[in-house]
Amino acid sequence: xxxxxxxxxxxxxxxxxxxxxxxxxxxxxxxxxxxxxxxxxxxxxxxxxxxxxxxxxxxxxxxxxxxxxxxxxxxxxxxxxxxxxxxxxxxxxxxxxxxxxxxxxxxxxxxxxxxxxxxxxxxxxxxxxxxxxxxxxxxxxxxxxxxxxxxxxxxxxxxxxxxxxxxxxxxxxxxxxxxxxxxxxxxxxxx
Length: 191
Hints:
Blueprint: H1 105-116, H2 118-129, H3 136-183, H4 186-189
């Protein structure tokens, strides 16, 4: 224990040996008994709206420095040279006696007249369509005419069958119409 004058005293001293002040007797310590603190009654939490604080104003710098424009530095690159287009030279026409020589307009006119003949045209189109040494243009024209002739013959056969099947029905309709015209008075035709 320490006195008010600063002298160290034994724990059981009643007076200070230096200044003579009386020392308070230490009180015996009471045993500490644990007690639970009282429980507060439950209270509903109350929502408190946060206080509004205005946003902080941005601080602007007074001195604005304009950026300095610098001229870009270009490096010399190799120039692209576009290739020069050269039009191919025109091929000369095939010679007159060649297999690939073109047929003139008068030649086509003559071939159409020959192919238009009934029997001779059919024979010529068959012969020239199979000709491997003559003009290729005449060979192609003969093949075309042969195909057109075959299509014409097929249509002729189909229409002949149609007429043969329905002849009696059409003939009856025509006879009724013609008979009806005979019964009309002459004033109907010549007013």
